[in-house]
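Morning!

As promised:
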Amino acid sequence: MKYVEEFRRHDLAQQLADAIGKAVDPDRQYNLMEFCGGHTHAIFRYGVQDLMPPNVKFVHGPGCPVCVLPIGRIDNAIQLVEQHDVILCTYGDMLRVPASGRKSLLRVKAAGGDIRMVYSTQDALAIARDNPGREVVFFAIGFETTTPPSAVAIRQAQAGGLGNFSVFCNHVLTPAAIQNILESPELRTMGSISIDGFFGPSHVSSIIGSRPYEFFAEEFQRPVVIAGFEPLDVMQSALMLVRQLNEGRHEVENEYTRVVTRAGNIKAQTLVAEVFELRRSFEWRGLGLVPYSALRIKDSFGGLDAERRFDMPAIAASDVKGCECPSILRGVKRPTDCKLFGTVCTPDNPMGSCMVSSEGACAAYWSYGRFRQSGTPDARESAA
Amino acid sequence: MSAVLKRFPVRLDIRRGSVDMTHGSGGRAMAQLIEELFVRHLDNELLRQSNDQAAFAVAAGRMVMSTDGHVVSPLFFPGGDIGSLAVHGTINDVAMSGARPLYLSAGFILEEGFPLADLERVVASMARAATAAGVPVVTGDTKVVEKGKGDGVFITTTGIGIVPPGVDISGDHARPGDAILVSGSMGDHGVTIMSSRENLQFETSIESDSAPLHELVADMVAAVPRIHCLRDPTRGGLATTLNELARQSGVGMVLREDAIPVKPAVTAACELLGLDPLYIANEGKLVCICARQDAQRVLEVMQMHPLGGQGAIIGEVVEDQHGFVQMETGFGGSRIVDWLAGEQLPRIC
């Protein structure tokens, strides 16, 4: 734990806060988007915003794996359980995400559906081996970080002749999504949001490296700083972004050098390329159809693709009426702009995906922004 | 024929046998299970009365009563098992009123096919825990459900206790200015259970903290009878317990993250699984709220007891109509420590 605690030290945080305070130009605003839910989580868990000057604002991006999955894909997964009687293996975060018809995987499980929470693809493979008479489907979601383990599982299942195992692939790609945000009309022409710079993903970049961000840093003239998920990483990266903006630079810088290289993890990339190929387009909640933004299983592993093995029609499902998750995911609206926020939509009864995961902007605001608006004095003030 | 007929000519095959439906049918098999397994281990004068109820005299004063169902999986884990847990859990619920626990009852729901050897292990462990705590199980019940309709064994225990004169402890007694204390490190039990589940293959040196807290409580109330609130932060962990107390008392709370004891191995496991130790269950810890001027005395008494050695003052009660539990983070910011929403699930990324 020693090497984690070092990235949460109060004295260093204070030094960085002072440095950022000195560096900012008081006459301008710094709107910095953290793409990743991991950063959103760290910002709220450690209270990083409290240490920032008032003109440095975090804008929460769409990088929460469960938040961006469109409802139709969850409906598909539910159909696998209800109509094809499969054992569905899923990461825990997915269980509570609302699907169509007031369903969720958790509710389907309660009604008797065989849904198992797993911690890794290896758990799903073990379940398939232990249940040779049942079809076992792994509900694969997530960005580039979770893709290599899915590739490993697919290769192992193929090599081991595990005929009852398949993968429902929903893996998505980060650079395509960031580019989509930068190309959105709100940002480019309407001016309803302004994003001055990006915190680049941490774990995702350990796989893909820092190179993929170079194109849009240049093309869209926005600085990107690859940042670790620890709170000191976030603060150091904020300082680097502030400096770039002050100096009119728009480069890709890497704060997370202890893990991320420019080229990334070549072995993982090769593995992913062997098993997956680009989809022409994929629907993201909030962003709509984004070209070449997701992966599908290649023909050579087609037998392990749940979408080919089962009849899985594309389902066009709409969000709950009034739910602002789509705009919140684009950074256009804040959770408190949503009429459902805190009234009918709470972490105990989530209407939209952003309220489900602790990486979702709404869940984070629920635990924090709600308090900020309440007029309750800050812990640090009342303790003083 | 002069030999006395044995009630059960063939002894219960505890080593190889398993629970079947006849053990819950009310007939001879059930009587034999009770006699040769339950009574043999849990034996005491009141249980030996063999009535459908236990009869005993009561002292004058305030009594408390509490009940708790235990459905833990796995049944056996480092530092305890469902049997000892069922004894400790209810003793602690009774003790959190400041009461001295007197008697327990135990209801067993057994699943058809459950090995009698495991059942004996559980009952023997209960008996040891009850004896060590000085709180006997004086009445009980056994039911059997069909295979697939239970998870081995479920145990419900009920306890009664007597509150010493002058002690008035309740969740709605927290007042602004009060100090908040815990008796030791947070999250040990929950992390032990998670690490022993078969689909989570990581090993830790952590053991469940399952323990009866009534003697610690007795020392605390003897030293400071006017303690305001006591509660054991079981399911939902410290965060949930403090939110309950804040709501009941209509106050807010401010915690200092640095002051909350968490073992490094628990922090590490939580880090790995994406969990927060403040939301993880404890089975041998308590939260105490008392007037600020009493806090140091309570802390001293706590730290003298083996179950309170790591006790600490972790924060204070403040005025707040919204009932927020806030925390100054070790990092230097602040955050809300909210109710647990749903189950605590691991994060993906």
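Chain A touches chain B through 61 residues (CB under 8 Å).

Hope this helps with the figure draft.
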